[in-house]
Amino acid sequence: MSSTTPTTTSPSPLKAPQHILSLLSTLHARSLEQESQLSATGKVFSSTVLGDLEDKKNSSTTSTTTAKADFDALMLDKFIALDEDKCHFTYQLLTALRATNVVEAGTSFGVSTIYLALAVSRNMAATGKPGTVIATEKEEQKADVARGYWRECGEEVEGVVDLRVGDLLETLKEGLPERVDLLLLDIWSALALPTLKTVLPRLRAGSVVLADNTISGAEGYKDLLAFLRAPDSGFTNVTLPYTNGFEMSVYAGAE
């Protein structure tokens, strides 16, 4: 009986033109380089960075507000993109779900959005259904850069993205699809639960919520995880064994 040597990396499920694949490779490399410069662990967590900034301030009542302003300024030109293997998983999941309506909380420079849009475009072509990726970004400067990358990708990305710029708890209040297939939470952990509650009325039965860094960022995500894991939440949950954790929660629907 013959045997073969297993490969060390899994093949990419991504189906895209070469210019998009090359762009994604460049953007992921840039993100990893920036994270290594910001963190000794090679991974940046908003709660950790905020804590470090607060420690550098005095203990006055304005320290937290000032630290948040400093955090926003520090992150203004940083990618901090969703890890490439997690992007591959999300793309594969979307194609399996035949998902056509996706909400992304935390777009930044739009790297993970490219994967979401490619999957939605593929599913739209396969099902004949309309679809959209609703992306959210607080900073107009980042939004402009993201739009440039999507434009570089072409219509199958740019044509399906609906970018909402500003406070996502406001921009997601209206104009959501009747049925949302997947919600990706890749934002400051304190905003994760309020964002989920904003989108929850639109989640269809069988929809999925993904949240990044739920092992390393467990303290910041404790309210979100408690909500998702409550017996009457309507969600079943599993922490996927990706670096720093990747929570996958499937919604059974409201009782």
UniProtKB/TrEMBL annotation:
GO terms for molecular function: O-methyltransferase activity. Pfam families: Methyltransf_24 (PF13578). Transmembrane segments: none annotated. The keyword Transferase applies. GO terms for biological process: methylation. InterPro entries: SAM-dependent_MTases_sf, SAM_O-MeTrfase. Gene3D superfamilies: Vaccinia Virus protein VP39. Keywords: Methyltransferase, S-adenosyl-L-methionine, Transferase. PANTHER family: PUTATIVE (AFU_ORTHOLOGUE AFUA_6G01830)-RELATED. Belongs to the class I-like SAM-binding methyltransferase superfamily. Cation-dependent O-methyltransferase family. This is S-adenosyl-L-methionine-dependent methyltransferase.
